[in-house]
Amino acid sequence: MLILFVISFGYSQGDQKVKGVSFVGADQPIDRKDVEPIIQLNANWVTLMPYGFIGKDGMVNYNSNWQWWGEKEEGLRKTIELCEQEGLKIMVKPQIWMMNAYTGDFKLDSEEAWRKFELSYEQFILDFLSVSTELNVELFCIGTEWREFIRARPEFWKKLIQKSKKTYKGKLIYAANWDDYKEVPFWQDLDFIGVNGYFPISLNKKPSLKELIKGWEYQETDLAKFSHQKNRKIIFTEVGYRSMYGATLKPWEHNTSNNYSAENQSLAFKALFN
Known about the structure:
The chain is of the alpha/beta class and 274 residues long. Helix content is 36%, strand content 22%. It is built from seven helices and eleven strands. β1 (2-13) and β2 form a beta hairpin. α3 runs parallel beside α5 and α6 runs parallel beside α7.
């Protein structure tokens, strides 16, 4: 299944703009035909997302027997191979899943607990970074939407970036949420600014294309200013809209609804591309 567009904001590699999609880790092995829809979309990049989970022990658990094939190292390696055969460039974006919770709100109440968790998260990142280094992956994301973790432990992140650079020769990025990307203190240590672009772009549940474009133009101005200030190009590490009315009010919400509207979703993406 393909979700979440990865659109560049001013970044190009040579003459090639970054136009990508995220490829959700499959529950069982895939083959070449499963990658073909990416090519048919005219994408030239793909994001692959191995997953980890925070266990009851407070540690990051990954490569577990019960996880989907595509979420583990075995599946990641094979999917990278298949994508590279099709000429796709790759971003590896390891993610943490928290049941009924948002990673941005993750906090711990003691130094001991933080250090224990940091060791496991660092190992999670460096293990998949090692795979990315071995397979010459072009872009690696060190984390996604860790608002409170970054506020509480900025030095951990700076050290993690330093360790990553010792072995990985590709580009590094972090995926900040749309409402806190300006608070990240280590953009200068990375190659790109990553933004998960779930900006509210309309207060109307049934907006026109013109209204949605206007909403994005406001965000574009702000993003361009920030990019200039930090001297870093911005990549949309995630963007997505549900096929329902009101999807542009709170694009981050994933609850189901009977307000189905393929047209509203289509208009939202048209506005983004425009």
